[in-house]
Design goal:
about 325 residues; mainly beta; Jelly Rolls; 2 domains; 7-stranded mixed sheet; 4 helices; about 5% helix; about 40% strand
Length: about 325
């Protein structure tokens, strides 16, 4: 197996997380979490965040694990943010005060949150929980925090600089020439969007909701659900369930002996194993994906996929949009 193929394989238990990825890192409810960068740096404010694969894909992929009742505070994105739940139950809530609505996502569920809205999330399970996150574009920009969270973070000794770097006042002073990010003013907060729980629920797809799956007649062991963008394979096109223009497509292949025969595409393609065990072949080289493992296929390579464990398996497939 070549070093090129191995370098594109992200075994989850070998990833190096950041334990203080954001300015909120010392606050109760946000301090017992880990942030992983798999493709691109994402929006981490930790300058030392380890990135598995820096190659441009047209999207960023990361993961978050958190202890019970821990997660992220209220923030907003300028590009897409799509969540894929791998374990546990996660509460998502939104609005500048976090009181406009909430939704609970469980293992296998997917949610695409709109840009220009404040949202936060919290592990409401009894054990540590894990989810993967896809962000739009090669540069997903920076995140915007609510004024309340920034103030609480500053009171804890953590400062966010205007260049998106972090300063821990217990360890260092503000570097010369750097300036602290100012909280948004009330008139700026008025420009953010608002959603009800029913409106956000339209952007949530439940793993157990079988009505969303398309059964592949060519490979009758396959069930495919397409969340975002158009998914096309071997001349068959599957329309998306969520009407968001994210810049990437997201689908799920599911089945006890699910497989896709050899094909090739020009754009970036990424596989993320939810459950089961998957064998991915690229130009006659093979990699094995266990739960939570990921792999980025080289562009234009000829690849095939098959589920090789005894139980049913599920594999997320993410592609850059054409």
């Amino acid at each position: 197996m070549s070093n090129n193929i191995l370098s594109r394989l992200a075994k989850f238990n070998e990833l190096i997380p950041s334990t203080v990825p954001f300015v909120e890192g010392k606050l109760k409810g946000h301090q017992d979490r880990k942030n992983y960068s798999i493709i691109g740096p994402g929006v981490s404010e930790d300058s030392k965040q380890n990135v598995k694969l820096a190659e441009s894909h047209g999207f960023n992929i990361g993961a978050v694990s958190a202890a019970p009742m821990n997660g992220s505070g209220l923030h907003s994105h300028t590009t897409a943010e799509v969540f894929m739940i791998h374990s546990g139950s996660w509460r998502f809530y939104w609005g500048v005060n976090g009181e406009e609505g909430e939704v609970i996502l469980n293992t296998g569920d997917v949610a695409s949150f709109p840009t220009n809205m404040f949202r936060g999330f919290q592990n409401v399970s009894d054990e540590e929980a894990l989810m993967f996150v896809a962000l739009g574009e090669d540069d997903p920009g920076v995140i915007t925090w609510t004024p309340k969270l920034l103030k609480e973070a500053n009171d804890s000794g953590m400062l966010l600089m205007e260049d998106s770097s972090l300063v821990d006042l217990t360890k260092q002073n503000i570097p010369e020439g750097k300036f602290v990010t100012k909280p948004l003013e009330e008139k700026e907060l008025q420009s953010f969007d608002h959603y009800t729980s029913d409106e956000i629920e339209k952007f949530v797809i439940r793993y157990e909701d079988n009505k969303n799956y398309v059964h592949d007649e060519h490979n009758n062991s396959n069930s495919i659900i397409n969340y975002l963008d158009s998914f096309e394979i071997h001349g068959k096109k599957i329309d998306p369930q969520i009407p968001h223009n994210t810049g990437f497509g997201l689908s799920l292949l599911k089945g006890s002996s699910a497989h896709i025969h050899s094909y090739s595409i020009d754009s970036s393609e990424f596989y993320n194993c939810l459950n089961g065990q998957w064998e991915v072949t690229c130009d006659d080289e093979k990699v094995i994906l266990d739960p939570h493992d990921s792999f980025s296929a080289p562009k234009k390579s000829t690849r095939s996929i098959k589920q090789i464990s005894n139980d049913k398996g599920s594999l997320f497939i993410i592609r850059k949009s054409k």
